[in-house]
Specification:
Distance between the termini: 85 Å
Number of helices: 7
CATH class of the largest domain: Alpha Beta
CATH topology of the largest domain: Rossmann fold
Largest sheet: 4 strands, parallel
Oligomer: single chain
């Protein structure tokens, strides 16, 4: 059976341009009719065009991608898609940005083995880097909070007369709406801030 060469192109949003990937596919020799262009986030693999491509893959077909992150966003996803294409479907993958990642059947066993090793290493490094970024962000937030930095919307500073009107409200001498009107705030804000006060 004649092998078919597919080019899978993904951009993360409808605003991104796929021209760079299309040019790379044409240079490799992928026919325009065999280019699958998907404009959808790679957050998960519920991508209809990608799933359709995987279903129709035949042994010895070839999928060409510009970079390894077209297959997934993390270590597990990339490895699983690689396994599905090369082991289950018995098709081949060519990653244009990384010539070592080329599992075409005409390559010798050593070449295919090197591809698998390089994939494992690259995916692991990418996943580790993402985890390190998240860890540094968490540590930065914790350090900032320890210094008293407040996160979230800036709270409006209460007028100096707030405590005076809060006392009047507690005594029943004034309604929350009247107090809020004097202070220039909503009565909901007045009631919320009064409840936050432990002692007046």
């Amino acid at each position: 059976m004649k092998k078919t060469v597919y080019g899978y192109i993904r951009v993360s949003s409808k605003d991104q341009n796929e021209d760079r990937q299309v040019i790379a596919m044409k240079s490799f020799g992928v026919l325009p009719s065999h280019m699958i262009i998907e404009k959808q986030s790679g957050k998960d693999f519920n991508r209809p065009l990608y799933q359709r491509l995987i279903k129709k893959l035949q042994p010895d077909d070839i999928i060409v991608i510009k970079s390894i992150d077209r297959l997934g966003r993390n270590y597990d996803e990339i490895i699983e898609q690689w396994r599905m294409i090369t082991k289950v479907k018995q098709a081949s993958i060519v990653v244009l940005d990384m010539p070592l990642l080329d599992t075409r059947k005409e390559r010798d066993l050593m070449g295919v083995l090197i591809s698998d090793i390089v994939l494992q290493l690259l995916s692991y490094v990418a996943q580790t880097e993402r985890e390190m970024i998240h860890q540094r962000q968490a540590e930065g937030i914790a350090a900032a909070k320890a210094k008293g930095v407040q996160f979230g919307p800036q709270r409006k500073k209460l007028p100096e007369e707030f405590y005076f009107y809060a006392k009047l409200w507690h005594k029943g001498d004034i309604s929350s709406r009247q107090a809020a009107k004097h202070l220039g705030i909503s009565y909901q804000t007045f009631l919320r801030r009064v409840k936050e006060m432990q002692h007046i």
